[in-house]
């Protein structure tokens, strides 16, 4: 690929709408940027953390001041409904509000020594340079989950956003760098996947990247995990999901349907936390399906600048991927949910559609009943507006079905029985459990992350993410004037351990 290769980010609402054209850089540019970040990092780490917290506070204020413009840009560029885009921008504000205070709480501990006239301490120290690689389905919220705590902890950042959300990323970067960050502390690099991987490899080898954060597919996450492992680093990996929702025989079915509708079709099913399969007790399967189908058929799909359940798919490559997913529908499946299947066009219309379907990448919401544990639709992440439905007989079977795909990000159970809640929570392998709520929806002060094929156990958000961007350093200070050797020069207290009551 030649240097300065141009990439055009177009709107999925209207594929002829050019939002921004950017130059994609080669691997060497990624390394050069990491070197510049490395040079800037030490001075930034020397800034007292409460002052760094003030900069985070400035970012939050600037995001609030630019919230509507940023949300509308997100909607235009990736087709996310405007209400969800506003919520995504609010997530940045919430994250900044939380970490503003953490600048005064980057606590270590004083630890009692086993010897006199000696003190032990622990400190959080920044890792150095963090390379952050993010997807474009949450083009501003998810980057803030990495970048805000990384900066607060005294790190410098090299950020590689998704090309198809380049305009949103550029706006995000401009806001952050207007908040008082010194030059070189936050850097943005536009590059394609392979050049980014090559650049990351070179930067790790050169010792100018000390932490990698990645949000994206499980396949790419595996490659990054292997690469980091060769350099004895542990990345923060937030990957895909095939998130189950269990509907028990005692569930509030109307509430479960509302949860399934939002979790399955919000953002056109293009969330890592989107509902994959509804696992419904056989005694309520027919009624749940009837209500879910009716709600899906009545939902408004179309132009995301209006009040719709979902808009277009993110980009042409995601539309192509989703069409391959739809090809896995089999004869034993029963399809519901819309007046058609596949792409919505004038020749394949969706009842009640808002807007001009032929201008954008719009797809019918699809419910596939009768999925089986061996089906690709049951086992693999779909990343599009499709929800599978299957049945179970007892809760242990439901838990086994929920764990079977091997992902472990999010899950939900709808029930009015607390006993079922705790049995489900104990058995399910997901990192996040919702009770009578959607599989999607994160709060800035709660840990976010998954297990299995969904991640390596790292967590974002809240105080838990601090362990991704700091390392513990211990210090012992002996002021006794003599060399006291641990485990050898400790006092021994004599006791009569043979004593027994008469």
TrEMBL record:
It comes from the Bacteria. Gene3D superfamilies: Aldehyde Dehydrogenase, Chain A, domain 1 (3.40.605.10), Aldehyde Dehydrogenase, Chain A, domain 2 (3.40.309.10). PANTHER family: ALPHA-AMINOADIPIC SEMIALDEHYDE DEHYDROGENASE. The keyword NAD applies. The active site is at residue 238. InterPro entries: Ald_DH/histidinol_DH (IPR016161), Ald_DH_C (IPR016163), Ald_DH_CS_GLU (IPR029510), Ald_DH_N (IPR016162), Aldehyde_DH_dom (IPR015590), ALDH7A1-like (IPR044638). SUPFAM superfamilies: ALDH-like (SSF53720). This is aldehyde dehydrogenase (NAD(+)). GO terms for molecular function: aldehyde dehydrogenase (NAD+) activity. Its EC number is 1.2.1.3. Signal peptide: none annotated. The keyword Oxidoreductase applies. Homotetramer. Belongs to the aldehyde dehydrogenase family. Keywords: NAD, Oxidoreductase. The lineage of its organism: Bacteria, Bacillati, Actinomycetota, Actinomycetes, Pseudonocardiales.
């Amino acid at each position: 690929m030649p240097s300065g290769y141009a990439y055009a980010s177009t709107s999925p609402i209207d594929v002829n709408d050019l939002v921004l054209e950017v130059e994609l850089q080669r691997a060497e540019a990624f390394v050069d940027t990491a070197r510049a970040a490395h040079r800037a990092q030490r001075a930034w780490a020397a800034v007292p953390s409460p002052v760094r917290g003030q900069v985070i506070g400035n970012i939050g204020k600037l995001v609030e001041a630019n919230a509507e413009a940023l949300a509308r840009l997100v909607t235009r560029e990736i087709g996310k409904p405007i209400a969800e885009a506003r919520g995504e921008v609010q997530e940045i504000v919430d994250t900044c509000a939380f970490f503003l205070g953490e600048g005064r709480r980057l606590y270590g501990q004083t630890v009692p020594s086993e010897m006199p006239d000696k003190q032990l301490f622990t400190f959080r120290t920044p890792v150095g340079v963090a390379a952050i690689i993010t997807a474009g389905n949450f083009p501003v919220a998810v980057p803030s989950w990495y970048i805000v705590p990384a900066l607060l902890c005294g790190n410098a950042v090299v950020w590689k956003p998704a090309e198809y959300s380049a305009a949103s990323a550029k706006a995000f970067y401009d806001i952050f760098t207007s908040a008082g960050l010194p030059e070189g502390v936050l850097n943005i690099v536009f590059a394609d996947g392979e050049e980014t991987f090559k650049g990351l490899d070179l930067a790790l080898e050169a010792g100018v990247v000390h932490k990698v954060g990645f949000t994206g597919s499980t396949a790419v996450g595996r490659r990054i995990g292997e690469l980091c492992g060769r350099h004895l680093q542990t990345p923060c990996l937030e990957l895909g999901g095939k998130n189950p929702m269990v509907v028990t025989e005692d569930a509030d079915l109307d509430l479960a349907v509302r949860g399934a509708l939002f979790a399955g079709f919000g953002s056109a099913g293009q969330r890592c936390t989107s509902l994959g399969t509804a696992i419904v007790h056989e005694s309520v399967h027919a009624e749940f399906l009837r209500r879910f189908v009716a709600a899906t058929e009545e939902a408004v799909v179309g132009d995301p600048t209006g009040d719709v359940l979902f808009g277009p798919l993110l980009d042409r490559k995601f539309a192509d991927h989703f069409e391959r997913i739809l090809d896995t529908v089999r004869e034993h499946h029963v399809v519901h949910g819309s007046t058609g299947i596949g792409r919505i066009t004038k020749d394949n219309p969706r009842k009640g559609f808002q807007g001009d379907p032929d201008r954008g990448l719009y797809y019918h919401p699809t419910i596939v009943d009768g999925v089986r544990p061996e089906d690709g639709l049951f086992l693999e992440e779909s990343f599009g507006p499709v929800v599978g439905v299957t049945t179970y007989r007892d809760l242990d079977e439901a838990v086994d079905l929920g764990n079977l795909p091997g992902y472990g990000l999010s899950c939900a159970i709808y029930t009015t029985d607390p006993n079922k809640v705790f049995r489900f929570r104990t058995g399910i392998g997901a990192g996040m459990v919702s009770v009578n709520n959607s599989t999607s929806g994160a709060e800035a002060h709660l840990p976010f992350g998954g297990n299995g094929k969904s991640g390596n156990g790292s967590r974002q958000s809240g105080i838990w993410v601090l362990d991704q961007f700091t390392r513990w350093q211990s210090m012992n200070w002996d002021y006794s004037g003599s060399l006291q050797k641990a485990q050898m020069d400790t006092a021994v207290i004599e006791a009569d351990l043979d004593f027994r009551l008469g």
